[in-house]
Each structure stands twice: as structure tokens, then as C-alpha cells.
Amino acid sequence: MDESLTPQIPALIHEGTYEQIRNYAELAYVALDGAGLMRIDFFVTDEQEIYLNEVNTLPGFTKYSMFPVLFEKTEGLSYSKLLDRLITHGFQAYEQRNNLQFRRESNDYSKIK
Length: 113
Description:
The protein is an alpha+beta fold. The chain has one domain (about 15-100): D-amino Acid Aminotransferase, Chain A, domain 1. Helices cover about 40% and strands about 10% of the residues. It is built from three helices and two strands, in the order H-E-E-H-H. A hairpin with a 5-residue loop joins strand 1 (about 40-45) and strand 2 (about 50-55).
């Protein structure tokens, strides 16, 4: 992390702005069919206008990177516990994908009017 930057976690923003950013982040995650980790960055103006800046689908992941630092500062989740959570999520997603069952629908179009 750049030593000239001083992160403020959590950000010093209005509660309503925080909730709106959280909502936008969830919408972006779903719209992009996110899985596992993703960091979605926003800019907030003095007037509380919110701008989506960028989406990091594979954010940096050293113990000094912002992604694990955010989890530690906001949820108290250590680097190793975050890794455990992500690995567990990966195994669950793999299991879920492998348990999908497909069936072929009938091609009987005679019932369509």
C-alpha cells in the first residue's frame, strides 16, 4: 500500500450514502454474474453524488492489499480467516455446479397456437 495514502475504514460518509453504495455494489456484482471475491470502487462527491469508478474482479490479495484490509477493518476477519472463507466458497460453488441436472424438454410444438 502507498505510504502517502491514509485509508479511512470505514469511510466517513453519510449512512444513506453508505447504504446506496452498498446497494449499487450488490447490483453491479449480480449484473456481472460475480462469484467469490470482487472489489467495486466508488467515488463520492461533497454533494454525496456516487460514481462507480471500477470493478476489480480479482483484486490484489497480499495481506497488505485493500481487499483483505477492508475485511479486517469492517468485519474483524483476519487474512487467514478470509482465505478460509473464500476457499470454502470455492468448494461450495464447485459442488453446486457439479450437482446441476439438466433435462431435455419435449419438442412437441403442436400445442402452440
